[in-house]
């Protein structure tokens, strides 16, 4: 008789039937050859009458005995798929094999190419504030971020970032400072001031008895003649401010502190003595023996 479904005989009149091998089938009586399973189907046993459809998350090519799981970065949402769909840029299968669908990248991550198995975190100096990001955005100059960031932070005072995408904010160098957040560069200390530390928010005025004429300095210069002459205020920016003798601690306490609002009168003198509360100021335009006695009148 004729071979039953699932079997075949090469000679139609033969009484000897053979079972269809895995990956093939025969659905009718009297088959002389088995048919290979179509793509998206499989047969894993002998004598198959009908091939089975591959499940979701898998696929097969023709004559398949098993279905293959979709590789990471691809997915199949339908049964009987011949191929898996490649995940678009901005999505992935989160490293899993046999995915039914692709997942959009979460904020702080990205997938720059299609078929990504996983989403990559945004590196330091960049961020992503939306899901499904293809490429992370660079932080503006004056700001930075840690990895996996959804936003950037301004550089704190005392630091700066001079280019976009800076992974860190750098501390201001010696002789410079930044007094506010978000600086793209540090300011140089002005003449009459200095800074000998890094990462600072301001500069220090040169102390009495010293001066600094240059910007961006890390120290001040003592008045000449072994500090025989001194300045009468902090923050001097030229050597010419070194006028009058150095005062003792007791004399310093008795000397009127300079203020822009003080009213003073000048008297020429060749003496180095003055009444309590007066200042001595050497006249730069005359011989060194002549001094001005500066007497406070009022404030």
3D architecture notes:
Helix content is about 5%, strand content about 25%. By secondary structure, it is mostly beta strands. A hairpin with an 8-residue loop joins β7 and β8. Residues about 250-299 have low confidence and may be disordered.
SSE map:
Layout: E1 7-8, E2 18-19, E3 24-25, E4 35-36, E5 41-42, E6 52-53, E7 58-59, E8 68-69, E9 74-75, E10 85-86, E11 91-92, E12 103-104, E13 109-110, E14 120-121, E15 126-127, E16 137-138, E17 143-144, E18 153-154, E19 159-160, E20 170-171, E21 176-177, E22 187-188, E23 193-194, E24 204-205, E25 210-211, E26 221-222, H1 224-227, H2 249-254, E27 263-269, E28 279-282, E29 291-298
Antiparallel strand pairs: 1-2, 3-4, 5-6, 7-8, 9-10, 11-12, 13-14, 15-16, 17-18, 19-20, 21-22, 23-24, 25-26, 27-29, 28-29
Q: Which structural class best describes the helix and strand composition?
A: mainly beta
Q: Percent of residues in beta strands?
A: 15-25%
> Could you give the order of strands across the largest sheet?
27-29-28
Mean pLDDT: 84
Number of helices: 2
Sheet of most strands: 3 strands, antiparallel
Short structural description:
This protein has 299 residues and is mainly beta. It has 2 helices and 29 strands.
Feature tags:
3-stranded antiparallel sheet; 299 residues; 2 helices; mainly beta; rod-shaped; 3% helix
